[in-house]
Write a structure and sequence with these properties.
Blueprint (H helix, E strand, L loop, with lengths): L3 E5 L4 H10 L13 E7 L18 H9 L1 E2 L10 H10 L33 H7 L3 E7 L23 E5 L17 H27 L6 H22 L2 H5 L2 E3 L2 E4 L7 H15 L5 E6 L20 H23 L6 E7 L8 E2 L2 E2 L16
Parallel strand pairs: 2-8, 2-9, 4-5, 4-8
Antiparallel strand pairs: 1-3, 1-9, 5-6, 6-7, 10-11
Helix pairs in contact: 5-6, 8-9
Amino acid sequence: ASFLLLCFRTPLVRPLIFALLLQPPLAQLSSITQPNIVLLMADDLGIGDVGCYGNDTIRTPNIDHLAKEGVKLTQHIAAAPLCTPSRAAFLTGRYPLRSGMDAVNHDRVLFWNGGSGGLPPNETTFAKILQQQGYSTGLIGKWHQGVNCQSRNDHCHHPLNHGFDYFYGMPFTLISDCQPTETPEMDRAFRRKLWLSTQMIGLITLTAALGRLTGLILVRWKTLTCLAGFTLLFFVSWFSSYGFVRYWNCIMMRNHEITEQPMVTERTTSLILRESISFIERNKHKPFLLFLSFLHSHTPLLTSEKFLGRSRHGLYGDNVEEMDWMVGHVLDAIDKEGLKNTTLVYFASDHGGWLERQEDKRQLGGWNGIYRGKSCQGW
């Protein structure tokens, strides 16, 4: 389960939305009748992690202020407990299974930037519809709906192919592999088996070589050479992928260009916030859609130093409070540009908190409040 929070910054926004919806799709509307739309989506945030839903250990004054001024939804449930299908449903308004972004018997999630899967190019997203209405559309932050189909440059699943004029952020999602100080997360159990197998094969090779040198084992040098070659080939075959996960998956892009590979996690938050404010400033004279898709509060919980240790809920609470601070800066930018009365702000989580996400004694997942835990997962 998850929650969605719909917030009208002022009562004047409601008739603007109705005016937008009642117009023909290709009608040229004046900027006065077209509200700006700012979508703020958290990642793995539980309904019980926000003050306006009853949390008293994590401070979220900016999100709470939105709820106080607007409409708080309590029965708006996400379409899936995983990021990829849930976000596909959010973008299209369709069950993720209908667009091939979910599975019947197994979790549907994109594991590699280089994979060929993703949101089909022929799907109609809300960004495409608003683009047709003359909106400037931008996505800042997480995508996780695929990039390429058949080649590394076709970008058939890229945000710019789904109605967004501008994209800056992660085409993939945050994983612990993106943070060098964290324990690797991608296929952790399988990687352990591969490493154990490599050690066993290497030990057999080394034992055979020592036995040959001491005369205890009669084995030809040609056989030992083949065995050593196989060990090296086996190691390279899997390490070439899993040993460089940060370089394959943890990247930042601006439109079609890779700007960081791997991403510098220490400055990711400030860059995403700066890009969001810059998009508002660039498009203040025309209707725009800004979809700010936070990397918070997904593990590895990238949190700036000034927020560490501030909450009563550990690293997870620190991360959520930093996200709320970012929300406040975006709202301030809207007010500064005089757009408060013509902007619809919508805050949501892609699905519920990853309650069972723990490392040692650290609780790294959120709290789902009245909803059952252990059903919402990360990614």
